[in-house]
């Protein structure tokens, strides 16, 4: 996140700074890093392994969900692990290489998550606004290609700022004062573009897209209810399920939207606190300590979202739950 106020908050809340900085604030984030590395990696990797092992055929929409779990795993392991090591190993705290890696993981992992959720939202917008085109043109190969594009864009977007920071703006001994961040004041235009394109735009896109998909889907279901008698709507699905045949396309479609709505609502709820903390630090005349406290809580909520994501997907996605229960 190449924003100056964001980096300032990180600089005051991460506890891999020198001893004099530890008195500035009592931070909860080290416990969050430990929780992220252990529980976050276990839930995402475990459920991802179970789903992949249980599914012989991965549907196109499940490609995006698997990509999201990979993004959660990438967000929950490299950067928190680096921060834990830099907290207790003094040589790593003063290493330019460790600082560069930490900043790289910080920016790329959050960008992967924001773009992955935005990609799922775009997928659902395509499905509801142009269903015939979606069925004809959306293939598993296209879904995999879009997921690869997300990872490439997320990782390459950080390179320009990091290269300029290392070559031109990095202090010779930045860690003697506990500073490890992109010098955004020196790269104002570049960091503003990165922050807008890879964080602000995806967040608004996810929120607006979710509202649009919910409204169009609601109107569609109302038209279906008005056209088909209730007796026919209740009889047909039961006959199929009792026969044990493959779920109908209508059932699969409902399962996809059920998964999308629950997952996106959970994401919006957990991402809003970081936006609030960002706004308090940038625009509100609150004390720095208050901004730091709000930011700590918002970061912990953000990590909880990535940890709970796989459990939520397994609970609301009936296809995943059915396949995993049959296999195990």
Number of helices: 13
**Backbone structural class:** mainly alpha
CATH C-level class is Mainly Alpha
What name is given to the CATH topology? Rhopdopsin 7-helix transmembrane proteins
Count of β-strands: 0
What does this structure look like?
The protein contains 13 helices and no strands. The chain is mainly α and 328 residues long. The N terminus is likely disordered. Helix 8 packs antiparallel against helix 9 and helix 11 packs antiparallel against helix 12.
Write the layout of secondary structure elements.
Elements lengths: L3 H10 L15 H26 L5 H17 L1 H11 L1 H4 L2 H34 L1 H7 L2 H30 L18 H40 L2 H14 L5 H34 L5 H29 L1 H10 L1
Helix pairs in contact: 1-12, 2-3, 2-4, 2-12, 2-13, 3-6, 3-8, 3-12, 4-6, 6-7, 6-8, 6-9, 8-9, 9-11, 11-12
In short:
The chain has 328 residues and is mainly α.
Keywords:
single chain, 328 residues, mainly alpha, Rhopdopsin 7-helix transmembrane proteins, globular
């Amino acid at each position: 996140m190449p924003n100056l106020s964001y980096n300032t908050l990180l600089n005051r809340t991460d506890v891999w700074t020198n001893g004099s900085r530890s008195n500035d604030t009592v931070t909860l984030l080290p416990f969050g890093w430990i929780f992220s590395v252990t529980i976050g990696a276990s839930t995402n990797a475990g459920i991802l392994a179970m789903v992949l092992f249980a599914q012989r055929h991965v549907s196109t929409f499940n490609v995006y969900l698997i990509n999201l779990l990979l993004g959660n795993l990438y967000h929950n392991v490299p950067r928190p692990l680096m921060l834990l090591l830099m907290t207790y190993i003094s040589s790593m705290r003063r290493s330019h290489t460790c600082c560069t890696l930490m900043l790289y993981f910080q920016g790329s992992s959050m960008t992967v998550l924001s773009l992955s959720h935005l990609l799922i939202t775009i997928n659902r917008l395509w499905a509801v606004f142009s269903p015939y085109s979606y069925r004809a043109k959306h293939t598993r190969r296209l879904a995999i290609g879009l997921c690869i594009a997300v990872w490439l864009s997320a990782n390459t977007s950080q390179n320009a700022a990091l290269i300029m920071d290392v070559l031109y703006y990095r202090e010779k001994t930045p860690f003697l004062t506990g500073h490890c961040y992109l010098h955004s004041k020196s790269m104002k235009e570049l960091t503003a573009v990165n922050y807008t394109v890879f964080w602000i735009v995806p967040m608004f896109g996810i929120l607006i897209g979710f509202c649009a998909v919910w409204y169009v889907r609601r109107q569609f279901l109302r038209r279906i209810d008005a056209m088909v008698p209730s007796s026919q709507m209740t009889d047909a699905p039961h006959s199929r399920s009792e026969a044990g045949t493959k779920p109908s396309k209508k059932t699969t479609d409902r399962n996809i939207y059920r998964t999308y709505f629950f997952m996106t609502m959970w994401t919006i709820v957990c991402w809003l606190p970081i936006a609030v903390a960002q706004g308090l630090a940038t625009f509100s005349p609150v004390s720095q300590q208050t901004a730091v406290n709000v930011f700590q809580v918002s970061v912990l909520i953000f990590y909880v979202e990535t940890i709970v994501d796989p459990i939520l997907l397994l609970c609301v996605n009936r296809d995943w739950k059915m396949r995993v229960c049959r296999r195990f």
